[in-house]
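Deliverable D4.2, example record:
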Amino acid sequence: MKTFTIFNDLNKIMDQALARISDPYTSKEAALTVDTNKMEQMVLNVIKTFPDGCICQDIELALPHVRTSSISPRIRPLLKKKLIVLTGEKRPGFSGRNQQVFKAV
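Output generated by the structure prediction step:
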């Protein structure tokens, strides 16, 4: 098992926005083990399969083996990298609440 020194790794966590400063130590420790590039690529690949755009729930259904908490945090970095865009449209999810629609560029 890898030992983490939170003070040495805190800059990495904060630079990559993998955890909030207020998150518990265990969340920060877990954040260091996430392969964000791999997760972003998986999410982007799913988004590309929706030519008319999709909502987070569509991605969750397409990746049932991946936890929701690992999917939704990948959206903002993909937007920042300009790999996806918000369409301005909203669609209801299972809860009935509207979710923003995004699509691959």
